[in-house]
Amino acid sequence: MRQTPPAVPGMREDEVDTPALLIDLDAFDYNIDRMTTLVAPTGVKLRPHAKTHKSPIIAKRLMAHGAVGCCVQKVAEAEALAWGGVPDILVSNEVVGATKLARLCALSAITNIAVCADDAEQVAWIEQAAAASGRRMTVLVEIDVGGARCGVAAGPAAVALAQRIAASKHLIFGGLQAYQGSAQHRRTVAERAALVKAATDAALRTRDALRAQRLECAIIGGAGTGTFDLEMTAGALTELQAGSYIFMDVDYAKNLDAAGAPVSTFRHALFVLSTVMSAPVPGRAVLDAGAKAVSMDSGLPEVWGRPDVRYVNFSDEHGKLDVASETASPQLGEKLRLIPGHCDPTVDMYDWYVGVRGRRVECVWPVSARGGTY
Fold first, then answer.
1. Is 44-246 a domain of CATH 3.20.20.10?
2. Residue-range domain boundaries for the chain
3. Rounded CA separation 113/219 (Å)
4. Which of 336, 192, 206, 349 is nearest to 274 (CA)?
5. Is the pTM of this model over 0.70?
6. What CATH architecture applies to the domain 13-20+264-366?
7. How far is Cα 288 from Cα 282, in angstroms, rounded to an integer?
């Protein structure tokens, strides 16, 4: 059952019911414009990852600023975005199972859609589903560029799989998926650069081997918020799949540049608005936002704009705060913004975004692909 919207347009931020998923629209707009400005001179295209925001409204807003489409990880996410009018979607993941593949092929009637594969048996299943639907499906070969997760080996094995796709009358070879996920949260630029170089070399080696077999890659996709600055000029990728930059969480903000300073120029735009529900003693307060309100998988959230207040512990429904100055302790009923440690799973906890500008609610958007795990 969808949750009741916690706000209505025109409401003050301190009137919003909590816990609530808040977008600071000024910071959000800045982040979108900033990425567009950074990428434009390179000629590389943006295909931001919608697993971050799970919203056709946001996906179309990004496309209005130059993105060519979006990525998703699951068929359910693809369905929510396609039904919401997003015209170009890449499932940057493998899809296995007749039911899922039938659903995916059905979406090709209303949107341009592609999927990844790293095994000939997967390709055969996609081929069967495409034949049954009467539509040709675009398939990218995912190569392992060092992440040791999904992906066929770069080079000859990837070429053989691409040839299998290209030989099918029901399929179209769409290019390469070359995402180096393990590089995204390496803190030093030297660590990230080394992993990006290895990924770039693998992608270029595979691209050149495909060209030798007269197979061109319409797409070579990859990169994330942690590495897009390195990969957009490395020469391998044609599309960047960074997604979290629109929101920026605590974990991505810890990545450093060569001087040891935070590398990101993006602003925190996503918050969990919470209420002080208990203040039993000076120096301690408890929020109504615990593990059911903000993801803890990448560490604890931070309290926005209050360096004297630390989120130090949690249970299902409670978030414990330590306050450096007892005289400045948050008061019962006070609203505080939390910056999530990891934005993607935090978004998946909510049915609604509350968009605020100048501490006034401007919009309420559904998180349409929430819970799209299948």
1. yes
2. 13-20+264-366, 44-246
3. 13
4. 336
5. yes
6. Beta Barrel (2.40)
7. 18
